[in-house]
Amino acid sequence: MRIEDWGLRIEKEKPRMQISSKAQPLGKAFYSILNPQSPILVIATLVAITIAGCGSAPGRPGSKPGGYYLDDGPGANPPADLDSLPEPTPKIEPINKYTSRPYTVLGRTYTPHTQLTPYQQRGVATWYGKRYHGQKTSSGEVYDMYALSAAHTLLPLPSYARVTNVANGKSVVVRVNDRGPFHEDRLIDLSYAAAHRIGIIGQGSAMVEVQTIIPGSGEAPAAPAPVAVPVSSEAGGIFVQLGAFSAEENADAFLRKMRMDLGWLAGSMQLYRGESLYKVRAGPYPSRGEAERAAERIRQELGFTPFVLNR
Asked: 178, 154 in Cβ contact below 8 A?
């Protein structure tokens, strides 16, 4: 297996800025070889890490039940009141100038934002837990897995953002105070508490939408207001199905999120109760061709492909 597959980095010189003080393990992480002048040490260390990783690494959080990188994961006795933890209050704070400099990780150069600017992006969120609890973040602050915080490659440190789980509509305000995750297929790393709040602990990752909050600008995104959503029995016709859920509350939250994201389709969306699932559908459509055009537009706007069904 190639060394780069494990996300390892050999530092040829001590960096002026600590990219991430999380001693990140395999695939999510970076190992620093402190003495590059010793090729024997470098080779021996890399071989040992590679062998250990190939033989015992169970995968990232949520990759399989109970599987975490090394000893990462939730703490043994997490606080019982995580759901009632107050969200951080966004405020203007001095931006850390050392974490605002361009930096390179795994051959990719990142240019962080140097000031608070509007930012909205959809991508994959992961989380990190007890392995880094109590260690310093890139900004120099101590990481608290039970605080509502996050790591991002570009956003100013510190800054604030609302993170919304696209699948269930749950959202949380986080304080961004760390750098990462350094993977092209991931957008943001959440603290354990933040991941718990939006329901991604068990699965380890989820598609989310990240939107910055700029205090005093009037641009702070509000959490979706709960609204009553009637549930109908399944009906005949041609529909576009956007999602199916075993829990009604999850289907309800997803429907409200889709109505926000797809305003042009909101009026035709409905929640239908099946034998064992709650299904979010748009329609009915007069023809399959019209339904397929709507499905394609959804794919272009949101990045996932719903399917057309004729009941």
From this structure: no
Residue 198, H or E segment? none
**Nearest to 174, CA basis, from 189, 186, 163:** 163
**pTM score:** 0.55
CATH architecture group of domain 231-310: 2-Layer Sandwich (3.30)
What Rg, from alpha-carbon coordinates, does the chain have? Answer: 22
Q: Does residue 187 come out as left (phi exceeding 0), alpha (psi in the -120 to 50 range) or beta?
A: alpha
Q: Where are the alpha helices (DSSP H) in 183-241?
A: 192-197
Write down the residue that tokens 């470098």 correspond to: 42
Region of residue 199 (left: phi > 0; alpha: psi -120 to 50; beta: else): left
Cβ–Cβ < 8 Å for 104, 10: no
According to DSSP H, which parts of 75-216 are helical?
192-197
Question: CB within 8 A of 58, min separation 6: which ones?
Answer: 64, 66, 67, 68, 69
Structure token digits, residue 182 = 């350094």
pLDDT band (50, 70, 90) for residue 161? very high
CA distance 158 to 149: 10
DSSP label of 136: B
Q: Write out pLDDT tens, residues 16-71.
A: 334 443 434 333 333 332 333 433 333 333 333 332 333 222 234 433 334 465 66
Given this model, what pLDDT does residue 20 score?
40
Q: State which CATH number among 2.40.40.10, 3.20.20.120, 3.40.50.970, 3.100.10.20 fits the domain covering 82-213.
A: 2.40.40.10
Band of the pLDDT at 218, cuts 50, 70, 90? low
